[in-house]
């Protein structure tokens, strides 16, 4: 049950003008798309599990704008949200994902062998490499909406699946409830664990309810393969390691994901996926591959170059601070990752990261020698 | 729709009529989208035992009272606004315990919550209000300020005096549950009524959305404005949704009579001034409250009240009078004395920092107010604060002179 807005039928007694949110000071994708007319048209709908339009947009109403990044401003409560509220979500998806149309098809490619190179990023600059994605389990509603019983059901199923993995994926599950503060701090410092949810972007969407009930982390013994359970999505799957061997990271990612998917399917709960939107996740920004492949890379000179943002944009890459999406960079070290999620495959997106980071490291080296980099600036990918 | 109905009708039947209107549109809602079958499916798949919260690490009144049996009885019920017990308890599940104060851990979404979920609310009310039993006891209301005696404090110690309460507008959902239009209706009803205040109570309204940052900071510094809601106790209950839509503050020209709109309650009414004249503060409080009530009644609205629970507010801790009468008082020696806590307890007083409920009490100046809200009238509680603070000042003076102090005997809880 979502909190706050379940009494949708009762609200329909009130006029649209009285219920329509004040978005005059807002700057997010939802606020750009939602008009009073659209609100009036779709506010009486509900998904089969009872998720409503007000539920979808609450986080965007409560959070007018983010300083570093244009936020989406809405979330899905279940797989059906993307159908029932397509009037709102299709234009947002198009805006967020480079003009993706309601008729477009998304290609999934998790064959790591299709990646070219990626094993030779200079470790003097590339400190660590990481690929993550999310998966939602069919038959359950999503984190903004699910009840405690559902969340525990997701956890139970996930623990069964994950603790049956073997080989390099063999590991252990740590429920957040019974982790000590010391264990938890260590995992956060290792960049393994997810934050206690304090970001209002997440809390206003209701996904932090009942924390830490049903939440946990599984990681393999080497700490190179991790799964977060019940944070912003049912599952977040992460492959990571120190240094610049993105190829190895991606291989482990693909192999691990396939194994996990097989186990879930055997239990009768595959992943949410369709051929238009790819993998279905809570935030529309993560549709498609849900993949964020990135590195922590030292670019002190390039990052203050006038053309840095332009270069990133052309390479279809995105910068973040080393603490994750809501943070700033420290000491010239940036988190550089693919900007796209929907409309291109996993392999294609990781390829962009590999090629783009390689180029930027070359540029950094040139700048260190006092040379110009204008000739190296790439065309729009 | 609520407007036209409640303007025509006054009296306690309003809520009943609204409820039946709500029920009617509920039926048509189901015809629009048949999710009843799905809802029944999900309830079968997830019985109450699957959803019962894990409260083993929790320390609040809700966690102490909620059992799987009670949860099983209440989980699938909804008020006529479709508010559920899960929504009532969410804040208590998300906030296991507060370091300085035992929190209640649940809120009401509407007037009906206190009835429909009485099986949980009643023991929580009993726990929080010293054994007050809503099933058998009656709450007295008394706003006759002339009854207060010795209400002028020594101003070498008392820096400021303040009385606040809350009032809810009958027929509209409470802040955790209200829709945007309901919240805007609360604002409209109150602002219209307040514009009718005259004399020393005449003033103006500042909408939070239209206030400049500078105006806002100025009002916070003068202890007039409410915080942007960051306390997880408030945000987890949903009362901060859509901020700052339909929130605002009204104050008179003297800045000693104020109303907050749509913070934790529909309205918070505050009378305050520098210095120690608590009697005058309470006199203005009662007068202002009565005039506001009269002004909303002229338009067919009324406050939520019944004789079991007194004034109905969002948090069960504020039922009854909803009244917190307090002072900022300098008690440097007493504040460091190990007996202070017991003295306060016996006087039925509570200590807070000068920044409000979520801040620690440090240094020489503390906020002292009544601990209780329900089971005693407004006049009784204010007199209790007056007598109690006078006693504390006496203790401070004695300690200054190197004399000993006594812990007073405990004040009885309820009238015999």
From TrEMBL, chain A:
InterPro entries: ATP-guanido_PTrfase, ATP-guanido_PTrfase_AS, ATP-guanido_PTrfase_cat, ATP-guanido_PTrfase_N, ATP-guanido_PTrfase_N_sf, Gln_synth/guanido_kin_cat_dom. The keyword Transferase applies. ATP binds at residues 128-132, 191, 236, 292-296, 320-325. The keyword ATP-binding applies. GO terms for molecular function: ATP binding; creatine kinase activity. Residues 11-98 form the Phosphagen kinase N-terminal domain. It is an enzyme of class 2 (transferase). Residues 125-367 form the Phosphagen kinase C-terminal domain. One of its GO terms (cellular component) is extracellular space. Keywords: ATP-binding, Kinase, Nucleotide-binding, Transferase. It comes from Champsocephalus gunnari. One of its GO terms (biological process) is phosphocreatine biosynthetic process. It comes from the Eukaryota. The lineage of its organism: Eukaryota, Metazoa, Chordata, Craniata, Vertebrata. SUPFAM superfamilies: Glutamine synthetase/guanido kinase (SSF55931), Guanido kinase N-terminal domain (SSF48034). Belongs to the ATP:guanido phosphotransferase family. It holds the Pfam family ATP-gua_Ptrans. This is creatine kinase. Its EC number is 2.7.3.2.
UniProtKB/TrEMBL annotation, chain B:
It is an enzyme of class 2 (transferase). It comes from the Eukaryota. Its EC number is 2.7.3.2. Residues 44-130 form the Phosphagen kinase N-terminal domain. Residues 157-399 form the Phosphagen kinase C-terminal domain. One of its GO terms (cellular component) is mitochondrial inner membrane. Reversibly catalyzes the transfer of phosphate between ATP and various phosphogens (e.g. creatine phosphate). Creatine kinase isoenzymes play a central role in energy transduction in tissues with large, fluctuating energy demands, such as skeletal muscle, heart, brain and spermatozoa. This is Creatine kinase S-type, mitochondrial.
């Amino acid at each position: 049950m979502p909190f706050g807005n379940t009494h949708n039928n009762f609200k329909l007694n009130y006029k649209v003008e009285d219920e329509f949110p004040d978005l005059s000071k807002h700057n997010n994708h939802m606020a750009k798309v939602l008009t009073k007319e659209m609100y009036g048209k779709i506010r009486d709908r509900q998904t089969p599990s009872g998720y409503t339009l007000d539920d979808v947009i609450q986080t965007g109403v409560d959070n007018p704008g983010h300083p570093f990044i244009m936020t989406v401003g809405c979330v899905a409560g279940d797989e059906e949200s993307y159908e029932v509220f397509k009037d709102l979500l299709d234009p947002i998806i198009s805006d967020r994902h480079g003009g993706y149309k309601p008729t477009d098809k998304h290609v999934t490619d998790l064959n790591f062998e299709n990646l070219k190179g990626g094993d030779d990023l200079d470790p003097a600059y590339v400190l660590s490499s990481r690929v993550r994605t999310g998966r939602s389990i069919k038959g359950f509603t999503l984190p903004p909406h699910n009840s405690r019983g559902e969340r525990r059901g997701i956890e139970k199923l996930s623990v069964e699946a994950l603790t049956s993995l073997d080989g390099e994926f063999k590991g252990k599950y740590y429920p957040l409830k019974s982790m000590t503060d010391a264990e938890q701090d260590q995992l956060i410092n290792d960049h393994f664990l997810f934050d206690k949810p304090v970001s209002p972007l997440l809390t206003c969407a209701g996904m932090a309810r009942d924390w830490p009930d049903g939440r946990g982390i599984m990681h393999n013994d080497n700490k190179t393969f991790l799964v977060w359970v019940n944070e912003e999505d049912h599952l977040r799957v992460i492959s990571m390691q120190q240094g610049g061997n993105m190829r190895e990271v991606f291989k482990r990612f693909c192999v691990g994901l396939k194994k996990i998917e097989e186990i879930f399917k055997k239990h009768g709960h595959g992943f949410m996926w369709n051929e238009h939107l790819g993998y279905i996740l809570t935030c529309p920004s993560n549709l498609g591959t849900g993949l964020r492949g990135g590195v922590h890379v030292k670019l002190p000179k390039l990052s203050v170059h006038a053309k840095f943002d332009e270069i990133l944009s052309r390479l279809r890459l995105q910068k973040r601070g080393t603490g994750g999406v809501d943070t700033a960079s420290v000491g010239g070290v940036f988190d550089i990752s693919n900007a796209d999620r929907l409309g291109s495959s996993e392999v294609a997106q990781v390829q962009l990261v590999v090629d783009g980071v390689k180029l930027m490291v070359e540029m950094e080296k040139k700048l260190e020698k006092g040379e110009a980099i204008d000739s190296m600036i790439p065309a729009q990918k | 729709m609520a407007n036209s109905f409640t303007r025509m009708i006054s009296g306690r039947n309003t809520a009943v009529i609204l409820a039946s209107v709500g029920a009617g549109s509920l039926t048509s809602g189901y015809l629009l989208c048949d999710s009843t079958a799905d809802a029944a499916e999900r309830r079968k798949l997830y019985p109450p035992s699957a959803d019962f919260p894990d409260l083993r690490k929790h320390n609040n009144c809700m966690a102490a009272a909620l059992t799987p049996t009670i949860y099983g009885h209440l989980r699938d019920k909804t008020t006529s606004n479709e508010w559920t017990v899960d929504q009532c308890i969410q804040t208590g599940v998300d906030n296991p315990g507060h370091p300085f104060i035992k929190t209640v851990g649940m809120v009401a979404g509407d007037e009906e919550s206190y009835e429909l979920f009485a099986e949980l609310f009643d023991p929580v009310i009993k726990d929080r209000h010293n054994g007050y039993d809503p099933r058998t006891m009656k709450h007295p209301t008394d706003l006759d300020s002339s009854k207060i005696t010795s209400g002028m404090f020594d101003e070498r110690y008392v820096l400021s005096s303040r009385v606040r309460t809350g009032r809810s507008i009958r027929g509209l959902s409470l802040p955790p549950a209200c829709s945007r239009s309901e919240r805007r209706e609360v604002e409209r009803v109150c602002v219209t009524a307040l514009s009718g205040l005259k004399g020393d109570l005449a003033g103006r309204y500042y909408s939070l959305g239209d206030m400049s940052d500078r105006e806002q900071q100025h009002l916070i510094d003068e202890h007039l404005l409410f915080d942007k809601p960051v306390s997880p106790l408030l945000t987890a209950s949903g009362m901060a949704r859509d901020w700052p839509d339909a929130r605002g503050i009204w104050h008179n020209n003297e800045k000693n009579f104020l109303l907050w709109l749509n913070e934790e309650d529909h309205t918070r009414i505050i009378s305050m001034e520098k210095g120690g004249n608590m009697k005058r503060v309470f006199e203005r409080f009662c007068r202002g409250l009565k005039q506001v009530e009269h002004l909303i009644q002229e338009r067919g609205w009324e406050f939520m009240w019944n004789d079991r629970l007194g004034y109905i507010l969002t948090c069960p801790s504020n039922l009854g009078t909803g009244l917190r009468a307090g002072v900022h008082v300098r008690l440097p020696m007493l504040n460091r004395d190990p007996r202070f806590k017991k003295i306060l307890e016996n006087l039925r007083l509570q200590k807070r920092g000068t920044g409000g409920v979520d801040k620690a009490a440090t240094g020489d100046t503390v906020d002292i107010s009544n601990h209780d809200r329900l089971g005693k009238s407004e006049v009784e509680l204010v007199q209790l604060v007056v007598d109690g603070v006078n006693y504390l000042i006496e203790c401070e003076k004695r300690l200054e002179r190197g004399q000993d102090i006594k812990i007073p005997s405990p004040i009885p809880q309820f009238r015999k």
